[in-house]
């Protein structure tokens, strides 16, 4: 069943932004829904020494390497890298690459990248291979904050010597390019306040641009879907039901096709319920024969300090199995241990 089928059956819950903040020393901050919090009593020097011993031992101690990487958050891993290089004269990434193999190597190196570097790497990989991985482009631009997108563009230029906008323009075309560039502008409203009047107006505008005209005014859809906040769009989708006999996703299915259809529908999914969007990604990565390791690593690493706890909850609600159960069925060995460690207890 598609994610929208589950929405209609009430399995997937709508976002509830009012529950997503907490006061810390009088300041309102977002609640932590990640699965990898800062490790208490952290000691970068001790961890660097432990990793060096695990790497240099006659039989590489993967269990120790995993225990350190999975139980430290990204900021702590960066400090470990700095101390490791200062004490050994070698880069930790290079040393791990020399002793680890396959999926375990890939996930370990991913964990060592700062978030913006990991995203820039993913975008480079998605646009460099034969055939562009459009799903990855949309996933990153639709789920990162405005500041995160600015950081990604800066890091991409520093690391690969190319302007990300120019790469996107070279590798994509048409309305899909316009949608990606609009998301790359980083002008999405990030206020959690919902304007009901604007939602009603946007719903009517989308209806007029889509169902109530010959053809479809894609630019209008792009403008609204890439600039409104998630909570605002959720209200717009609800208002859309008052002016149309079909849901907005169904309207997009009827009026569009190809990359731009997939792109706009993914934006709708993210706006409605981002954790459910990622839960579906993980499920599809393990569904049927074969497993898409790239997707498992990408999602679990990038969301481990953002909302992976919510993703795990949505996964169970949507598929009646825990994410961890499906990982146990589809993966093995030390690689499996890393993925399970990132998911948290179950």
Automatic annotation (TrEMBL):
Which terms does the record give in the GO molecular function aspect? calcium ion binding; calcium-dependent phospholipid binding; phosphatidylserine binding
Is Repeat among this UniProt entry's keywords? yes
Q: List, alphabetically, the SMART domains matched.
A: ANX
- Keyword line: Annexin, Calcium, Calcium/phospholipid-binding, Repeat
Q: Name one GO cellular component term.
A: nucleus
Give the protein's recorded name: Annexin
Kindly give the Gene3D superfamilies that the UniProt entry links to this protein: Annexin (1.10.220.10)
Per the record, the similarity remark reads: Belongs to the annexin family.
Task: Mention one GO biological process in which this protein takes part, according to its record.
Answer: signal transduction
Q: Which residues form the signal peptide?
A: none
Domain topic, free-text comment: A pair of annexin repeats may form one binding site for calcium and phospholipid.
* Pfam families named among the record's database cross-references: Annexin
């Amino acid at each position: 069943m598609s994610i929208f089928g589950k929405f209609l059956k009430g399995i997937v819950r709508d976002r509830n932004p009012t529950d997503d903040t907490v006061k810390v020393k009088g300041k309102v901050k977002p609640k932590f829904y990640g699965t990898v919090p800062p490790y208490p009593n952290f000691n970068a020097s001790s961890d660097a020494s432990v990793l060096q011993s695990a790497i240099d031992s006659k039989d590489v101690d993967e269990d120790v390497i995993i225990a350190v990487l999975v139980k430290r958050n990204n900021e702590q891993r960066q400090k470990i890298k700095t101390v490791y290089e200062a004490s050994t004269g070698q880069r930790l990434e290079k040393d791990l690459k020399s002793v680890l193999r396959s999926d375990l190597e890939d996930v370990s190196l991913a964990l060592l990248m700062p978030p913006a570097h990991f995203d820039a790497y993913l975008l480079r990989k998605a646009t460099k291979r034969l055939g562009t991985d459009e799903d990855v482009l949309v996933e990153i631009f639709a789920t990162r904050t405005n500041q995160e997108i600015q950081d990604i563009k800066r890091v991409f230029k520093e690391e690969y010597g190319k302007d990300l906008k120019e790469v996107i323009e070279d590798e994509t075309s048409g309305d899909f390019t316009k949608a990606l560039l609009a998301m790359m502008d980083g002008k999405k409203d990030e206020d959690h306040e919902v304007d009901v009047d604007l939602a009603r107006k946007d719903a009517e505008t989308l209806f007029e641009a889509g169902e109530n005209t010959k053809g479809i005014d894609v630019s209008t859809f792009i403008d609204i879907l890439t600039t409104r906040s998630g909570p605002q769009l959720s209200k717009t989708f609800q208002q859309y039901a008052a002016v149309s006999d079909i849901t907005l996703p169904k309207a997009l299915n009827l009026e569009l096709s190809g990359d731009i259809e997939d792109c706009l529908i993914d934006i709708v999914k993210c706006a409605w319920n981002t954790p459910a969007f990622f839960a579906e990604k993980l499920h599809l990565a393990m569904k049927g024969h074969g497993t898409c390791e790239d997707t498992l690593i990408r999602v679990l690493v990038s969301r481990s300090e953002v909302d992976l706890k919510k993703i795990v909850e949505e996964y169970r609600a949507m598929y009646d199995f825990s994410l961890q159960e499906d990982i146990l069925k589809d993966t093995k060995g030390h690689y499996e241990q890393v993925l399970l460690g990132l998911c948290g207890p179950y």
